Amino acid sequence: MGLIRSGARRVRLPRTRRGRRLAYQAVVVLTVLALAPATWMNATGGPRVRTVADAPAAPVAVVFGAGLWNGEPSPYLAHRLDAAAALYTRGTVRAILVTGDNSTHDYDEPDAMRGYLVRHGVPARKIVGDYAGFDTWDSCSRARRIFGVKRAVLVSQGFHIRRALALCEAAGIDAYGVGVAATHDVTWAYGGVREIFAAGKAAADAALRPDPRFLGPREKGVAEALR
Questions:
Q1: Predicted confidence band at 31 (pLDDT cuts at 50, 70, 90)?
Q2: Which of 11, 102, 134, 155 is the most buried (most CB within 10 A)?
Q3: pLDDT 10s digits, 70-123
């Protein structure tokens, strides 16, 4: 039986043809299982990705948080907000739900997003903040269950938008997505790799539909913004 040294450990390889065939089949099965969530995510969300110019009309745009730099939206988040502002200016959406992390007093994504949108021409009364959008599932689930969103245009970078679409569909939202272009830098590469691993959690969330970390009472902010 063959041996492969790996430091102090030795990995034994199958010696017989049947053993090698079984090992190969096991590797294939594990690879398929590992890639299945990403395949589901792309099959579910891919056909609904649009641009600002051809996104179908919906009552609300949902913008997912993407980090702050010194209290202001990061470049990636700013690009998402620019797209949302353009959707509002074009009349594609009538209100914008900004969802992000406000887990500490010193870190407030939704208010930073709101301030950016106001500076770019969106009326404050048309912007609603979700301060407990700690991950994509929480944002989608709360958009439906807390804010009553049934149809929306989702806004995120291209590497994330398919996961957002798949999860919002699982949460009960009829959505299309705008995949915002991004510079192919280290952040973009990290985001792409992260999506491969995040797909497994997304598939579990879609199947199990857990409560978000914070649920709370229904809020009327979106309904009032649409009035």
A1: very low
A2: 155
A3: 999 999 999 999 999 999 999 999 999 999 999 888 899 999 999 999 999 999
For the chain, the residue count is 227
Selecting from 3.90.1150.10, 3.40.50.620, 3.40.50.720, 1.25.40.10, what CATH number does the domain 45-226 have?
3.40.50.620
What is the C-alpha to C-alpha distance for residues 22 and 32, in angstroms, rounded to an integer? 15
**103 phi and psi, to 5 degrees?**
-75, -20
pLDDT above 50: residue 206: yes
Place of tokens 């970078």: 157
Concatenating the DSSP letter of every residue in 105-160 gives TTB-HHHHHHHHHHHTT--GGGEEEETB--SHHHHHHHHHHTT---EEEEEEEHHH
Tokens of 62: 């949902």
Which three-class secondary structure state does DSSP give residue 95? strand
**Residue pLDDT, tens place only, 123-159:** 999 999 999 999 999 999 999 999 999 999 999 998 8
Question: CB-based contacts of 144: which residues, under 8 Å, 6+ apart?
Answer: 150, 168, 171, 172, 173
Q: Cα–Cα distance between 85 and 178 in angstroms, integer?
A: 12
The domain locations on the chain are: 45-226
